[in-house]
Amino acid sequence: MLLLKLSAEDMLTLDERHRMVPHLAERWKRFRKSDASDGERAAWAESLVELARTMVDAGRGHVEMVVECAATIGQSPKSVPIIDVVLLGRHPETEGLSVQLVELKRWSSVTQVDSATATEVVVPGLGKKPHPALQLEANYQRFVGETGPLRKLSFECGGFTYLHNATEESVQPLLGINAPMGAYSAVYTRDRREQLMKDLRKHFGEDSGYSHAEILLRRMGVRNTPLLDAMIMSRGEDTVFTLRREQRTVADHVKDRAAKVLDENATDLERAVFVVTGGAGTGKSAIGLQLKAEFEAAGLEVRYASGSRAFNGAMQRHVGYGDREFQESFTYFSSFMDPPEEPLDVLICDEAHRLREISETRSGEKGTKPQVEEILDASRVAVFFLDEGQSVRPNEVGTQQFIVDAAEKYGAPVVPLDLRAQYRCGGSDAYVNWVHDLLGLSDKEPGRWVPDGLMHIEVADSPEEMERIIHAEARAGATARMVAGFCWPWNPPQGKEKRLVADVRIGDWHRPWNAKGDSYCENGAVPPGTLWSVHEGGIGQIGCVYTAQGLEWDWCGVIMGDDMVRRDGQWVFQRGKWRMDKETGYRRVAVPGSLDDEVRNSNLSDEEFRQCVRNAYHVLLTRASRATVLYSTDEETRAYLRELVGEVQIHGLRPSWQELPPALRVPHQKRPERRRSGKKKPQAPEGQEPLF
After folding, report:
1. C-alpha torsion angle, residues 633, 638, 641, 647 (rounded to 10)
2. 511 pLDDT higher than 70
């Protein structure tokens, strides 16, 4: 649990906009499942602001404040102790990480309980309270102990209590000779503010330009290793991901129930069906891939099916390059029109919301029964992972009820499992909720975006500006791509060299869609669509929802087209038309709007059309793990987005790859070399945390 990560300067800016306390209260309710008390709100408004102002006055406004932070994310937020603030920055002498744990108290006076010790004091109106240093000591051990996120790091760490309403005289028992001692026992009062500022300058040096809080976020598991990197680094190992809390619970539940079916002596169950639902970033693919690894390690025959060519292509041709057995373990929902002679032990279906009513191959061959029944025929254990909010075509029928109905025909009980905690988008549930509200996928009106230090949003004034940002981050070492709503025609490659046509046209700015199919284009310089997301040559093309679904990047530029525009305070959804340009022979936009043939089809009701467009943008807007850059081709919509997002450059808040401490700039994994007998798997870079 953590509620906010911002520099002291940013914290004051947020408070000046009257958004700090509402944001903290919203996050509190999310984690604690209850409303923040008036006392909590008052403490944030008073104590946090006073600490931030003191740091700014000390010339250390760049130091980052992590607010209401627990040392672990592996326990219930209701039971785990939390600390008011963790300060992180650069030490002025060692140049390394410097950390201060802070307890903020609004007490104005205390009296001593026992003359022999000051471990307990009386606070007027609150009764007996432990000395704050004891709280700090316990949290100190949680952060730096054997299981803490800062374990085994070489860094400076201490702690202090700040009683900004008190004087030294009024809280003398906290300062006496009998008070607890240690690196975390310092106490500052209102009349010792100058000393606090002096000590802050001893603890923290001037701005280095790096976000040192990222070290804590990485080691707490808030920042994930990208899925494809994780797969490459763990090839050949039984363990692919370190699953968290409910993720591990779901995986264990599937394994335990599946064992009752797959056991040679089992007689009561013939098959097991699981439906795991969860939104973007809840770890569905991580669980599925981990289950695949664990079932395979147990000697079972397993296939991993998906409806996404982009996901399968990345797995087969990037992660599994040169490993035929690995490649063949990934397949498609439509691969089971002819069931195997003996059912597979386990068939894992990722992106199951993309299930079709009837299977159809690329050559046009169609199945004779519902696709979900083909999957059930082909397996003894079927595990479906789905998010109904990511269904982007009308013929995608994968819902929990659809699967339940099919399983009933086979007399197979369905085990429903649900995932709620999300780890994509920098772990920022605030961002995911904001996207839902923005697109009308919730019953709430979208509010102003509140920077939380976990996820970043900005609105570009032009496609050129968006492209500059995305390309700059890619050159610096981040993964970055641009995607767009399907609002332009998609012309086939031209000539022998398969030159891509610059179909995405916004004023004088013209760029091609990613290549279709499995072939390289432009004499090998442009990757096939199945590798666009991971190949270095993919940065120059624009992806759509079908090539982005199931994948992620550090930075994602999202172009909203004329299929979804803002008019008179409402979203308006538009179906487009294309025309053939007689001079060039290319298809061009005739009527702005959606040009996705399956979605704009006149047989689709207006409500179905709106839902498909909303879901498509929901997929696109949740592909980034650090930052989303938004651009709309419509001026009124762009103004609306800019109003919601607000000013961008709050003291350099943009999470550029260059702002990461050098030790955290872990290069993304390249495609492995062809596997050879006895060849060891790639090792994780030094300092890399456990995956997921």
Report:
1. 120
2. yes
- pLDDT value, residue 542: 98
Q: What is the 3-state secondary structure (H, E, C) of 109-155?
A: CCEEEECCEEEEEEECCCEEEECHHHHHHHHHHHHHCCCCCCCCCCC
Alpha helices (H) in 148-307, listed in sequence order: 193-203, 213-220, 227-233, 245-262, 284-297
Contact (CB, 8 A) for 211 and 426: no
Q: What angle do CA 640, 643, 644 make, to 5 degrees?
A: 90
Distance CA 286, CA 268 (A): 30
Range 483-487 average pLDDT: 98
- In terms of phi and psi (left: phi > 0; alpha: psi -120 to 50; beta: otherwise), the region of 185 is alpha
Phi-psi region of 362 (alpha: psi -120 to 50; beta: other; left: phi over 0): alpha
Distances (CA, A) of 149 to 153, 428, 514, 527: 9, 19, 40, 40
Neighbours of 602 (CB within 10 A): 7
At position 382, the amino acid (one-letter code) is: A
Q: What does the block give as tokens for 556?
A: 């994602």
Provide the pLDDT for residue 684: 39
Residue type (1 letter), 612: C
Render 624-663 in DSSP notation, one character per residue.
EEEEEEEEESSHHHHHHHHHHH--S-SSS-S--GGGS-GG
Q: Do the beta carbons of residue 453 and residue 4 sit within 8 Å?
A: yes
b/e for 533-562, b at 16 or more Cβ within 10 A?
Answer: bbbebbbbbbbbbbbbbbbbbbbbbbbbbb
Q: Is the pLDDT of residue 688 over 50?
A: no
Q: Is 443 exposed, middle or buried (0-12, 13-18, 19+ CB in 10 A)?
A: exposed
Return d(Cα 391, Cα 399) in angstroms, integer.
9
What is the maximal distance between C-alpha atoms in the chain?
96
Structure confidence at residue 193 as a pLDDT band (50, 70, 90):
very high
Nearest Cα to Cα of residue 304 among 241, 237, 351:
351
> For the packed helices 193-203 and 49-57, what is the interaxial angle rounded to 10 degrees?
70
- Distances, alpha carbon 206 to alpha carbons 5, 59, 144, 203, 637, in Å: 19, 8, 24, 10, 41
Contact partners, residue 377, CB within 8 Å, separation at least 6:
336, 339, 343
The string of pLDDT tens digits covering residues 219-247 is 887 877 777 877 877 764 545 677 878 88
Distance of alpha carbon 7 from alpha carbon 18, whole angstroms: 17
Q: Are 319 and 358 in contact (CB under 8 A)?
A: no
Using alpha carbons, select from 162, 402, 441 the residue that is nearest to residue 275: 402
Paired residues of 553 in beta bridges: 624
Global pTM value: 0.86
d(C-alpha 540, C-alpha 526), whole Å: 9
CA 55/CA 71 separation, integer angstroms = 23
Instruction: Look at residue 465 and tell me whether its pLDDT is greater than 90.
Output: yes
pLDDT-derived band at 491 (thresholds 50, 70, 90) equals very high
Query: Do residues 615 and 598 lie in contact, with contact meaning Cβ atoms separated by under 8 Å?
Result: no
Distance CA 167, CA 157 (A): 26
User: What is the tens place of the pLDDT at every residue in 321-380?
Assistant: 888 888 999 999 999 999 899 999 999 999 999 999 999 887 788 888 999 999 999 999
